[in-house]
Amino acid sequence: MAIVIVLVFSLTLLVLGSAYIKTFTTTKPVNPKMLERLQADFFAQGIAQIAMLKFKRFPADFYHAYIHAQAGLTNITPTPLARFHGGNNTPLQDYRPGGVSIGAPVPVATYSTIYNMISYKGYNRDALEVRVSVTVGTVQQNYVMTVDASRTRLL
Fold first, then answer.
1. Residue extents of the structural domains in the chain
2. Confidence of residue 75 (pLDDT cuts 50, 70, 90)
């Protein structure tokens, strides 16, 4: 009886061991260039979502800032639209205390955001294009997001 129990136990260990070894032989190593590309893509999508949130949350401020920028008025530094562009003076902008990146060994990303109003009908219906340019390590990723927004007043 003891021999049967030992044989069953050793057979289960053999099956589990072979399954464990098989998982290591079938997995592929992570390509660092592909990982950088994926990081840049997800980061660009996230920044575009934040830009859309700013537009949806503060429409009056955005309209005034965009009209100010289109008029070519440069007497204010920083410009009102710079608050919507983001990216300047944020912790994500390549912060290197003592020459070492804050995200080491992961490279810190730099990004810029550009807004373009495709159609403008005040507070009723707009089409907004957000262009995000992200640099993560050696990879530069551009992401364009277009949103058609309409606002209705609740009565």
1. 36-150
2. confident
